[in-house]
Write a structure and sequence with these properties.
- The complex is a heterodimer of chains A (about 130) and B (about 375).
- Chain A is α+β, with helices and mostly antiparallel strands and about 130 residues long.
- The radius of gyration of chain A is 14 Å and the shape is globular.
- The longest helix of chain A has 11 residues.
- A six-stranded antiparallel sheet of chain A has the order 1-2-3-9-8-5. In chain A, strands 4-6-7 form a three-stranded antiparallel sheet.
- In chain B, the strands form four sheets. A six-stranded mixed sheet of chain B has the order 11-12-13-10-4-14. Chain B has a six-stranded antiparallel barrel with strand order 15-18-17-16-19-20. A five-stranded antiparallel sheet of chain B has the order 6-7-8-5-9, covered by helices on one side.
- In chain B, a hairpin with a 2-residue loop joins β19 and β20.
- In chain B, α2 packs across α7.
- Chain B starts with 9 loop residues before the first strand and ends in a 12-residue tail after the last strand.
- Classes of the chains: A alpha+beta (about 130), B alpha+beta (about 375).
- Chains A and B meet through β4 and β6 of A and α7 of B.
């Protein structure tokens, strides 16, 4: 499967969200954009949450660190972590090379839809990136 | 300074080159400076294995001409300056009366081609205005000294790395290997004057060049061209910081500040208390006699999570005993390193914990520096 970044939703804080349905339940797969990875540059460390923990929209759920700085990962939806990409912290090169497929970070069972409506589509996100670059 | 307020920032004479090379520019000490061109790690490795070029024009260059220059600097610096030979460079600190560090500096004693002698003081960009004021406050006692801030009229370029010598040999009208570590001279490149110092801030051999602002781009290009086949890379402030951390060189605002004295900072080698009087001498001597309260140490955090500046250092018995002053991943060692200021009663202990944003990491004390370049014959 190859994720098409132009069909994903984006948070202002550079997380991407891929929403799928599973038996009427919304599941959000979350990662960080190639723009964010390019800005961070030289990733060295990632701290991920435990399965079963719940986060509110906008709450910090982990950290990614580059040589220079720590960047919090903000939850772009509200819900419970149902899966964590365990191998990712040991393969940050993989995240660097393939942020949309290999580089997924967590899967979340969405408990509240309201956050989703505040996310941007690809065009709006691109506009934000071009303005901040 | 507010990041958005770039209208108040100065540009170095190499600003356009950085932008053309795709550098990521950030506000730093009143200047727009390149933090990286591509990858901090690649720039770091280029410096350790080949050579890297740094634009350090933001640093202050203050010139002292006339009789009494050495005596004035002798009073302001923790190192003796009156016996600094022509061609000599010394690292020292400017302290206040209480022994707090106002800045750490390099002083050079130089001779121009027309046989004029002067002293050049290189100060931190963030402290330039403060040191200029400090100097002016003490100038009245030395009426024959002419003091001028040469920062805006000049540029400064650092060429650092194992191949720096070989390349600089091709560039100047003299053989730079004649300079020993911490020596400087005024030479020329295509008939334009260049101050060449065998100094640097990376732990590598290399040179720092001071040229007229209008010559900066030409000199930078010449060094890049001469080193191109050898793999020279331009390097930004990001790599400069990881390199100096590995070499355990203190950075003002991190290891050093006005509430820290040179002895606690681990810089007693750069503080001559017994050969003369200078501002701060008595206070520093008293601190030394009374015993230090805290000391700088090196730490190796376990695992891969870097401990950054500001993280609390915890002793084995659970007490907060200090703070990380600089920390991050070491590209050369492939693991995190950190420097910390800790209470003197635990400064010789080996096991610590670090509170990294609410999570504890174990850390082991280690001797500084973290990295020392292999000895070579030169």
């Amino acid at each position: 499967m190859s994720r098409d970044k132009s069909t994903l939703l984006y948070a202002e804080t550079h997380e991407w969200v891929d929403v799928s349905e599973d038996g009427g339940q919304k599941i959000a797969t979350i990662g960080i954009s190639d723009f964010a990875i390019e800005q961070l540059n030289d990733l060295v460390y990632m701290d991920l949450p435990e399965v079963g923990k719940s986060f509110d929209f906008g709450e910090e759920f982990g950290e990614v660190e580059s040589v220079k700085a720590v960047s919090p990962l903000y939850c772009p939806v509200a819900g419970e972590i149902i899966e964590v990409h365990e191998g990712l912290p040991d393969n940050l090169d993989g995240l660097n090379d393939d942020p949309y497929d290999f580089g997924w970070i967590v899967k979340i069972k969405v408990s509240d839809d309201t956050g989703l409506s505040s996310l941007m589509d690809y065009a709006a996100y691109q506009k934000q990136c071009s303005e901040s670059a | 300074m507010d990041q958005a307020d770039t209208s108040l920032l100065s540009q170095t004479p190499l600003d356009q080159w950085h932008r053309d090379a795709g550098a990521k520019m950030v506000p730093f000490a009143g200047y727009e400076m390149p933090i990286q061109y591509d990858s901090i790690v690649n720039e770091h490795q280029a410096c350790r294995t080949k050579a890297a070029l740094f634009d350090v024009s933001h640093m202050g260059r203050l010139r002292f001409d006339g009789d009494g220059s050495a005596e004035l600097l002798d009073r302001l610096l923790t190192r003796r300056v009156v016996d600094l030979p022509v061609g000599g460079v010394r690292y020292g600190m400017v302290c206040n009366e209480a022994g707090g560090i106002l800045d750490d500096v390099l002083v050079s004693h130089l001779k121009t081609p027309s046989d004029k002698y002067y002293h050049l003081l290189v100060v931190n960009a963030s402290n330039r205005a403060k040191i200029v004021e400090w100097v002016k406050q003490h100038l009245d006692d030395f009426p024959t000294v002419t003091f001028s801030d040469r920062t805006e009229l000049t540029a400064m370029i650092a060429v650092q790395g194992p191949l720096a010598m070989e390349t600089c040999r091709k560039l100047f009208s003299f053989d730079p290997s004649r300079l020993k570590y911490y020596q400087a001279t005024i030479t020329d490149q295509f008939s334009k004057p260049v101050i060449v110092s065998r100094t640097g801030y990376t732990g590598e051999d290399g040179f720092e060049l001071v040229v007229r602002a209008e010559e900066a781009a030409r000199v930078w290009e010449n060094v890049m061209l001469a080193g191109r086949d050898a793999g020279f890379a331009p390097a930004g402030l990001g790599a400069r910081d990881t390199l100096r951390m590995e070499a355990a060189m203190p950075l003002y605002g991190h290891e050093l500040d006005e509430s820290t004295d040179p002895i606690s900072a681990g810089l007693s080698f750069a503080c001559n208390l017994d050969d003369r009087d200078f501002i701060g001498r008595d206070a520093i001597a008293k601190i030394k006699a009374d015993g230090l309260k805290r000391r700088r140490i090196g730490l190796l955090p376990e695992g891969r999570r870097p401990a950054r500046e500001g993280c609390a250092v915890i002793s084995k018995d659970g007490k907060e005993v200090g703070v990380i002053t600089s920390g991050g991943p070491s590209p050369t060692l492939g693991k995190p390193i950190a420097m910390a200021m800790v209470d003197i009663d635990v400064a010789d202990q080996t096991e610590f914990e670090i509170d990294i944003r609410g999570k504890r990491s174990a850390a082991t004390a280690t001797k500084l520096p973290f990295y020392r370049r292999p000895k070579t014959v030169s």
